[in-house]
Amino acid sequence: MKTPFQELVSSRRSVRRYLDRPVEREKILACLEAARLAPSAQNSQPWRFLVIDDPELKRRFSQEVFSGLYSMSRFAARAPALILICARPDFKAGLIGKQLQGVPFHFIDIGIAGEHIVLQAQELGLGTCWIGWFNIRRTRKFFGLPRGLRPVCLLALGYFEPRPPRDKVRKKIEDIVSFNKFGV
């Protein structure tokens, strides 16, 4: 028997077709509040979010960042809202983590915060899709982002037409989990 959380996680899908219906600011803010509460290395909270929900601005932005090599992400332009997630990687935890561990912790923190958005959106009846394939240089220029702010990803967000659930293709738990020593 699945828990309510397991039901939420298993029902979540990447949505690439959105209804032409704006997302209420209250729901967007609820998603961002979930992200704000996410854990981060040394509580650095390296994330910054830019919501793009003005249709004309979103259209112009999408033309800039989803063209040419990045055209496979053009579907996101039809989402009622895009959330640009940026990192401020200059926090001590991120710098030390990268130097000593070889792991830029701000990317992990961004992933956790972004997934909080995704799961909150799912609970609110909204669809999302992670987008990592977009023109970062043009994004920086379009919004005049300061040097210390690094665009990492976008989340498309909006209402969608639910489809019948299908099984997710995933490896078996015993193929990915070991206890106390790695099995091969």
Structural description of this entry:
- It is a single chain.
- With 184 residues, the protein is of the alpha+beta class.
- It has a single domain (10-160), classed as NADH Oxidase (3-Layer(aba) Sandwich), CATH 3.40.109.10.
- The chain has seven helices and four strands, in the order H-H-E-H-E-H-H-E-H-E-H.
- The chain has a four-stranded antiparallel β-sheet with strand order 1-2-4-3, sandwiched between helices.
- The model has no long low-confidence stretch (mean pLDDT 93).
* Domain module tally: 1
What is the CATH domain class? Alpha Beta
| Biggest beta sheet summary | 4 strands, antiparallel
Strand content: 5-15%
Number of helices: 7
Order of helices and strands: HHEHEHHEHEH
Strand order of the biggest β-sheet: 1-2-4-3
- Tell me the CATH superfamily: NADH Oxidase
Distance between the termini: 29 Å
Number of strands: 4
State the helicity in percent bands.
25-40%
Could you tell me the mean pLDDT?
93
In CATH, the architecture is 3-Layer(aba) Sandwich
* Rg measurement, Å: 18 Å
Which outline best applies?
A: globular
Structural class: alpha+beta
Please outline what is shown here.
This protein has 184 residues and is of the alpha+beta class. The chain contains seven helices and four strands; from the N terminus they run H-H-E-H-E-H-H-E-H-E-H. It is 39% helix and 15% strand.
